[in-house]
Amino acid sequence: MSLRSPAPVVEIPENPTPKGAAAFWIEAGDGARLRALTWTPEAAGIARPRGTVFLFSGRTEFSEKYFEVIGELIARGFAVATLDWRGQGLSERALADPRKGYVRDFTEFDDDLASFMASVSAGFPKPWIAMAHSMGGNILVRGAHDHPEWFSALVLSAPMLGLRLGKAAGLIRMLSFTATRLGFGDRYVPGGNAKAPHELPFEETVLTHDARRYAIYQALTRKEPKLGLGSATFGWLAASFRSIEQIVTPAWLGAIKVPVLISVAGHDQLIERSSLEAAAKMLPNAELIAVEGADHEVLIETDELRAQFWRAFDGFMGRHSG
Q1: Class of the 22-320 domain?
Q2: pTM of the predicted model, to two decimals?
Q3: For the chain, first and last CA: distance in Å?
Q4: Domain extent listing, the chain
């Protein structure tokens, strides 16, 4: 398979592909096929690039969901590159049931990230900025620790540094580890099913208050059902607990010297706010901003709430992008 073997892009009128997109397949170290998309300065029409934003999504997400965000980054003068993590989007999925959210261990995502950077990053203008949401933020914290040469700054939207599970957290953790050890890692967690989070009615979502953007998210999966990803499995949940426990420590976070902007979603029902506040204190050079009232996915929230994020982003980039 050629490095630049073309990959499909899902098109709908309500979500146009930003000018200059190239979509292609790359291979991870274990042979898994991953979809990557890039917008070089030349293709996107950026005369004087400010650098490159490497954009990474959260669990269940896919590249098309971020076309609006990518367009906003290009308008700010940044080249952009992104990928679908293994097990979601149009990248290769590990299980016979493609709707099951599964990963054996987050080291597999580490390999995806390393393969992506090795295959895609050459020739993109510096500084290189990493921008990630939720699970992608967890993976980026791993990558920034192990490869400090990659990124000059990190921008993390509701990074998955602590799951909001309440008093049942200990029990859920034990159940996920036990089920995985007993060979049930590929089973849905209790109550889980094949329905993707955005396939719920808008009135039931905990992702956003913005009905229009949520409808676009839904329309993309209706156009291409392969984009959809259902509930997590015991294996994914156990791997998430292991990764969080590994990286949310003073030693791990203290080794990340680059500037980090952490955006807290004030109404987040998936990520524990205190975990982000604690992480910001452990990082040597971190800024924490709270978008009060925002649900988990700030970047597909209402215009007013998104504007708060972008003001923080612009200020942060003004201080740290050269």
Answers
A1: alpha beta
A2: 0.97
A3: 38
A4: 22-320
